[in-house]
Design goal:
Number of helices: 13
Shape: globular
Largest sheet: 6 strands, mixed
Order of helices and strands: EHEHEEEHEEHHHEHHEEHHHEEEEEHH
Number of strands: 15
Strand content: 15-25%
Strand order of the largest sheet: 5-6-7-2-13-12
Radius of gyration: 23 Å
Helix content: 25-40%
Distance between the termini: 9 Å
Length: 503
């Protein structure tokens, strides 16, 4: 779907705005590392300007209707200037990864300015070796994990000899709508909702069995969500009364083939292995901090993409969520993986994801003319520490190398977000045969992100050892495995589809 002036946010997209309170900022992104000398600021800006027309949302800001009548609109920013979104900083000497991690924490700490389009890029030079980085931030209201990667990849090429950037496409923004026009749009939302209701009733009358099945699935899903609220997540130090304003960021990167070897030897999927790695690292990290883990099973908010192949390159959120287990109380790494794999299989077969979809679907019925009826409580539940201890999100990146102005992108370290009372978020992304874990932490409640990164390496070593000792079964397929990926340049295809549609 093309990104148009006056598009309306879905209730799910709007929930990320509603959850942004105090120091809980809902920005996601990545730290991107490149080989080679950094481009000049003029070269970098020219590259971005040459691609802006392919994602119109990058030149749009939020506008809330009068009296809060419905969800916000995306409107063209008449004052848009790409230089307000692109910065350049130099690492302090000696320019090592340690300085890069510290700088990333500083750049990720402030919230995005809602008065302008919700994204920022910072080019970082000053590395001791000949390389540079880009720190990328966008608001979760604009993009989920996959579409955030799509935005970043839009700036890059699959060909190292792609040549210099093309000229900037002409752009004429629409005028910002008046309060009267926004009010009129809100009023027409009543008719739009009535038309949706009529269409739903017509479909239900034509196929009552399908309508009954869908209603039953939604009710069953809502019951599972309610049941989970009664089974509270354990109380641990990473869930403080509120997160502080500072951020720490660290990462650890591994070979994707090793994760595949582990799952082939021990069972499960690459995603299950990733959760087991996070679990093992958390267990060691807690032990180091004298936090009791015996019998403890953390609950992770695990977003699952429902974005189709043809929807790559589109923005907004195409997600459902599961309450994934992190059994830090289990000492044996193979047993941890087995428990996680069985639990995730059960969750995928359950109605739990349908409950969240049903709630957000009900909200969307009313988004055009009144504040979504369940948005407040649903948004609060969505990241409640009663349900979840932390975010663990994993999404596939491209399995081919990408380039920016002829410089190869060598690593993508993904960045999650800290919701209220969540002191730690783990984001996992595969790229070109590697898997990177990005750790975002509130140093006041979850200090020691770099130590947790070291424990990730130990957790992979533990699982590798267990895989060595196991009798290798037949290799299981990667079908449905988010991080397994393939070698098809899906980002290039998405770009081509968007260019053919004229944005």
């Amino acid at each position: 779907m093309a990104q148009r002036h006056m598009d309306r946010l879905s209730s799910f997209d709007t929930s990320f705005l509603a959850n942004e309170k105090d120091n809980a900022h809902m920005a996601i992104g990545a730290v991107l590392v490149f080989d080679g000398s950094p481009p000049t600021q003029d070269e970098f800006l020219a590259q971005i300007r040459s691609r802006l027309h392919q994602l119109p949302r990058l030149r749009q800001r939020l506008l809330t209707p009068p009296l809060g009548l419905g969800t916000p609109f995306w409107v063209d920013d008449e004052t848009f200037d790409v230089r307000r979104h692109v910065d350049r900083v130099t690492l302090p000497v000696p320019g090592t990864d340690a300085e890069m991690r510290a700088l990333a924490g500083e750049l990720l700490a402030p919230p995005l300015d809602r008065g302008k389009p919700l994204w920022e890029l910072t080019l970082v030079d000053g590395f001791a070796a000949e390389r540079f980085a880009i720190v990328y931030k966008t608001h979760h209201a604009m993009a989920d994990g996959i579409s955030a990667v799509d935005i970043g990849m839009l700036l890059f090429d699959v060909d190292p000899e792609a040549g210099p950037p093309g000229p900037e496409e002409p752009w004429r923004p629409h005028r910002t709508p008046s309060h009267a026009r926004l009010g009129a749009r809100a009023a027409t939302g009543v008719l739009a909702t009535l038309r949706r209701l009529a269409r739903w009733l017509t479909r239900a009358a034509q196929d009552p069995a399908d309508a009954s099945r869908r209603a039953g699935d939604g009710i069953a899903g809502l019951w599972e969500v309610t049941f989970n609220l009664l089974r509270a997540a354990p109380r641990v130090p990473i869930n403080p009364p509120g997160v502080g304003p500072r951020r720490e960021f660290a990462w650890a990167t591994f070979d994707l083939p090793e994760f595949k070897r582990i799952k082939n030897a021990l069972g499960g999927t690459v995603n299950d292995v990733s959760l087991a790695v996070a679990t093992g690292a958390m267990r060691s990290w807690f032990a180091e901090r004298a936090v009791e883990t015996d019998g403890v099973e953390l609950k992770a908010l695990v977003p699952v993409s429902i974005r189709t192949v043809d929807e790559h390159g589109e923005l907004g959120n195409k997600l459902t969520a599961m309450r994934g287990p992190l059994p830090v109380g289990i000492a044996d790494p193979a047993e941890r993986l087995a428990v996680i794999s069985a639990a995730m299989d059960g969750l995928k077969a359950s109605k739990q994801p349908l409950g969240a979809e049903a709630i957000w679907g009900l909200n969307d019925w009313f988004r055009d003319f009144a504040p979504p009826v369940l948005l407040g409580p649903t948004a609060a539940i969505n990241f409640s520490t009663r349900l979840f201890n932390l975010l663990v999100t994993n999404f596939p990146g491209p399995q081919i190398p990408f380039y920016a102005l002829g410089r190869e992108l060598t690593a993508i370290h993904p960045v999650g977000f800290l919701a209220r009372r969540h002191g730690l978020a783990i984001a996992i992304l595969s790229y070109n045969g590697r898997v990177s874990f990005g750790l975002l932490a509130d140093p006041d409640s979850a200090p020691g992100a770099e130590r947790l990164a070291a424990h990730l390496e130990s957790a992979v070593a533990e699982l590798s050892g267990a895989a060595d000792r196991a009798a290798p079964p037949l290799a299981s397929p990667d079908h449905g495995d988010q991080l397994a990926g393939d070698d098809r340049p899906r980002f290039a295809r998405a770009r081509e589809r968007r260019a053919a549609r004229g944005g």
